[in-house]
UniProtKB/TrEMBL annotation, chain A:
Belongs to the universal ribosomal protein uS9 family. Pfam families: Ribosomal_S9. Keywords: Ribonucleoprotein, Ribosomal protein. Coiled coil: none annotated. The keyword Ribosomal protein applies. This is Small ribosomal subunit protein uS9m. One of its GO terms (molecular function) is structural constituent of ribosome. One of its GO terms (biological process) is translation. GO terms for cellular component: mitochondrial small ribosomal subunit. It comes from the Eukaryota.
Automatic annotation (TrEMBL), chain B:
Residues 58-76 have a biased composition (Polar residues). HAMAP family: Ribosomal_uS2_B. This is Ribosomal protein S2, flavodoxin-like domain-containing protein. GO terms for biological process: translation. InterPro entries: Ribosomal_uS2, Ribosomal_uS2_bac/mit/plastid, Ribosomal_uS2_CS, Ribosomal_uS2_flav_dom_sf. GO terms for cellular component: mitochondrial small ribosomal subunit. Belongs to the universal ribosomal protein uS2 family. Keywords: Ribonucleoprotein, Ribosomal protein. Residues 47-76, 360-385 are annotated as: Disordered. Gene3D superfamilies: Glucose-6-phosphate isomerase like protein, domain 1 (3.40.50.10490). GO terms for molecular function: structural constituent of ribosome. It comes from Amylocarpus encephaloides. NCBIfam families: rpsB_bact (TIGR01011).
Length: 324, 385
């Protein structure tokens, strides 16, 4: 749904295509193509002021050449007046954001009606991730401010506290409407299993390097790309990085590591191995997760080389200033 | 004697006192040689980074998974049963005890607003609509609405209030009867509920947040994305035949604006003045009555007073709508269609596909209308007459 980067015309088409809410046809107009009606006709106020003057029966003169087949000049009196008038689709028409205002009022009504239901204790409510502001804007097609959308989110959070056994179906429907399609809080990282030889596999990345590490119970031997730690990495710091997950948890003499690393430089490979060994170790001992997290062995470092900019020598460096 | 005392004092304690914990722990603690080795081995330069957590880590039982920290305090069935029992008790004991005859229920003015015939001086007095502002803040234009001064505060004459409120109710009812679009505006905190309710009753529009300046004078730009629809005389929506007209129709303007706080909405009232839109507003003693077409002298700072005024006007609008629909059912249409709208334009095939559209007009009439331009031409001819 994140179509905010598209050009305006395409975006509108896309919204109509993928929006769950039925869009009215006239939402399609982007540029205001309405013509102004400057009319001084008294007929619009006929019911308020004096009634329209009737000039009796006036026949239109048929023009022989231009007359179409079946076209008969008729009297105003004879033709029945078709009664139709224009009204706003929503009572929130003059707020300029009718869909948002209607949504807010619906939720406020729900909250008012069900505010007396029992609630769960703070922290026990199901964790929800609501639609982001951009997603909501794309859905309704209105420039809703963040503070306004926060009102909706606040009400939803309160509705989410209603005890699950007593949650009314309409509240559940409203919550489902604003729920993000993928709930990030339900996402459980998959743990690699211990295979029949007692190995676990972990993968890690850092800068341009990728690494895989197989960890097996043993006596503390480490082989990286078939070389020992001292042969594979010249820097002591890098060697320490590779086994940092084992070292920080005091497991260095209990496991053997056999690892493959490729791409990037030595630092990248070493720190990619930190991540790989940490994940593989966590598969052996899930209870170590908080300790490994605090030791920084489970967090992918997202930093990459910053791109070079035009006008700069490198990413940030500017050419030296020369007088004239 | 001293020895005996010692035995009496400490002998009892020696039997009763629990065995010291350190002794128990030393018996049960399992320490593997590798654990202690890992602890004793100097970790060169990173010991401080782990924050001394190595000992607790070595005690962690590797086979155990962490149990969830918080268990639900009450079982699900119990909460449901308790709630049902509470509702049951409430229902059974609701009518026991004394009944308070006259009392103020904050929700009731919004849920069941008073009708124009319910306006009494007692109601207005009870809802504090007589309280004006400090005498130093007054606008002399309101002199004729002021009853007197009490403790440095102007008191609004409730007879005037009632008379003006009844007149405004008549105006609202008339506009609703003639199919006009009524806009209720109350942008102060706490006014939203009564504004929405009044608009719902009168089938009008509501505005409880900031008025976007230019929504009337520049509506084509500001309200261009807001949907409009076509309804027939019975308020049933006409879904087909007007797509092209709706597409190019200019933004709607209200036919009557009810403003509950004119002081904050000068721009709105000015736009109404530019467009010849009548306005109804609550005029406190510090407001300028000339901003408003049909002023209602009352207290606009009290939520309760505002709720009474909005409720009365909403009920009047509901009455007007009811009368209009009743008249439409008996064959009298109390309004005239806007110029240039005309009859729905449906293609012949579309009519054939649709089995029997409710709004389809007789067949010969469709043939008489060749195209949109010709209809406009006819209208132009009418205008010239």
């Amino acid at each position: 749904m994140g179509a905010s980067w598209l050009p305006a015309s395409l975006r509108n088409t896309l919204q109509c295509a993928c929006s769950p809410r039925p869009m009215a046809l006239n939402r399609l107009r982007i540029f205001n193509t309405r013509t102004r009606h400057f009319s001084t006709s008294p007929s619009s106020r006929a019911s308020f002021a004096a009634p329209e003057i009737s000039f009796g029966r006036q026949r239109e003169v048929p023009q022989g050449g231009r007359d179409q087949a079946g076209f008969q000049p008729v009297d105003e009196e004879e033709r029945p007046k078709f009664y139709a008038r224009l009204v706003p689709s929503s009572p929130s028409y003059f707020t300029a954001q009718p869909l948002f205002t209607d949504d807010l009022l619906v939720l406020q009504n729900l909250l008012r009606r069900y505010s007396t239901l029992p609630v769960v204790k703070p922290g026990e409510q199901p964790r929800m991730s609501w639609r982001s502001l951009t997603e909501y804007r794309d859905q309704v097609g209105e420039a809703v401010k963040s503070s306004k959308y926060q009102k909706i989110v606040q009400i939803l959070n309160r509705l989410n506290y209603i005890h699950p056994s007593l949650m009314p179906p309409e509240v559940r429907a409203a919550i489902n409407e604003y729920k993000r399609d993928i709930n990030a809080f339900q996402n459980i990282a998959k743990v690699s299993p211990v295979d029949r030889l007692g190995r676990t596999l972990g993968a890690g990345r850092r800068k341009a390097a990728t690494a895989r590490a197989w960890v097996v119970e043993g006596t503390g031997e480490v082989l990286v790309n078939g070389k020992t730690l001292a042969e594979a990495f010249g820097r002591v710091h890098d060697r320490e990085s590779v086994v940092w997950a084992l070292k920080s948890t005091g497991r260095i003499d209990k496991y053997n590591v056999w690892a493959l690393s490729m791409g990037g430089g030595t630092t990248g490979q070493a720190e990619a191995l930190t991540l790989a060994v940490g994940k593989a170790l966590m598969a052996h001992e899930p209870a170590l997760k908080p300790a490994l997290r605090r030791a920084g062995c489970l967090t992918r470092n997202p930093k990459r080389v910053e791109r070079k900019k035009p006008g700069h020598v490198k990413a940030r460096k500017m050419p030296a200033w020369v007088k004239r | 004697m001293i020895l005996r005392n010692v035995v009496i004092r400490h002998g009892r304690k020696a039997f009763c006192a629990p065995i010291q914990k350190s002794f128990l722990r030393s018996l049960t603690t399992e320490s593997s040689p590798s654990d202690t080795k890992s602890l004793q081995r100097p970790i060169e330069n990173h010991l401080d980074e782990t924050g001394g957590m190595a000992p607790e880590i070595s005690n962690v039982n590797s086979g155990n998974h962490r149990s969830p920290s918080s268990q639900p305090s009450q079982s699900i069935d119990k909460v449901q049963a308790n709630h049902i029992y509470k509702q049951h008790l409430k229902k059974r004991t609701n009518k026991l005890g004394s009944i308070v005859q006259k009392h103020y229920d904050p929700e009731s003015l919004v849920q069941n607003p008073p009708k124009p015939e319910d306006i009494t001086l007692e109601l207005l007095m009870a809802s504090q609509s007589h309280l004006g502002h400090s005498t130093s803040l007054w606008n002399p234009g309101n002199q004729r609405y002021i009853y007197g001064i009490r403790q440095g505060v102007h008191i609004i004459s409730l007879e005037e209030t009632a008379a003006h409120l009844r007149r405004a109710a008549k105006v609202v009812e008339g506009v609703a009867y003639h199919g006009g679009l009524i806009l209720f505006v109350g942008t102060r905190a706490g006014q939203s509920s009564c504004v929405v309710k009044a608009a719902q009753l009168a089938k009008g529009c509501h505005l409880f947040e900031r008025w976007t300046p230019g929504s009337i004078t520049n509506g084509d730009q500001i309200l261009s994305k807001c949907d409009i629809k076509v309804v027939d005389k019975d308020d049933n929506e006409i879904t087909r035949g007007y797509e092209a007209k709706i597409e190019e129709w200019s933004a709607l303007k209200p036919d009557l604006v009810v403003c509950l706080n004119p002081l904050e909405n000068y721009i709105l009232l000015h736009e109404c003045g530019l467009n010849n839109i009548p306005t109804i507003g609550i005029i406190d003693t510090d407001a300028d009555p000339t901003w408003i077409t049909y002023p209602i002298p009352a207290n606009d700072d009290s939520i309760r007073s505002v709720q009474v005024v909005a409720g009365v006007l909403g009920q009047a609008g509901a009455e007007g709508q009811r009368k209009r629909l009743l008249a439409a059912r008996t064959g009298t249409v109390t309004w005239s269609p806007p110029p240039g709208l005309g009859a729905p334009q449906i293609d012949a095939e579309a009519t054939a596909i649709a089995a029997q559209p409710k709004f389809a007009e007789p067949q010969p009439l469709q043939e008489q209308i060749p195209a949109t331009n010709d209809v406009r031409g006819q209208n132009g001819a009418e205008d010239e007459l």
